[in-house]
Write a structure and sequence with these properties.
alpha+beta, 2 helices
Length: 139
């Protein structure tokens, strides 16, 4: 099910801690799910989590280098404090986002992306390349 409000939301700077997923073709969605489960188990190792019920998927659209084609499964933290050595830290700068709520399985998310891209174009906005894009997962 897709709930689409057709709105733009500004988010302030976000500090994220999490795990990296390299995009590997057909196994990509499965790898994200596996990494999200791993992060959920490892959340006890992360300090200063702001919203433990949420994970954030972060990625940059259409990177030019294949080795930068990656996705991050993270949690938002107040500050970077004693981050586990095998985890990454990201600072996502303040920016505007088009908002869409997708309720359902990951393998059905393609339709949600089609809807939001059409809405963005029809309202005179542009998908920003080489900028952070976010997905919020609720557990």
């Amino acid at each position: 099910m897709v709930t689409f409000e057709g709105r733009i939301k500004e988010l302030g700077e976000l500090r994220l801690v999490g795990l990296r997923v390299l995009r590997t073709g057909n196994e990509y969605l499965r790898d994200i799910q596996k990494t999200a489960k791993t992060l959920n188990i490892r959340m006890k190792d992360i300090q200063q989590i702001l919203h433990p019920e949420n994970q954030i998927g972060a990625f940059i659209v259409e990177e030019t280098c294949a080795d930068q084609d990656e996705y991050y499964v993270c949690v938002q933290v107040e500050d970077f404090h004693q981050v586990p050595k095998d985890m990454i830290t990201l600072i996502i700068p303040s920016q505007m986002y088009a908002v869409l709520i997708h309720e359902g399985l990951n393998n059905q998310i393609k339709k949600s992306y089609e809807i939001i891209h059409i809405w963005i174009e029809n309202h005179g906005y542009k998908t920003l390349k080489n900028k952070w894009h976010l997905e919020w997962f609720t557990y």
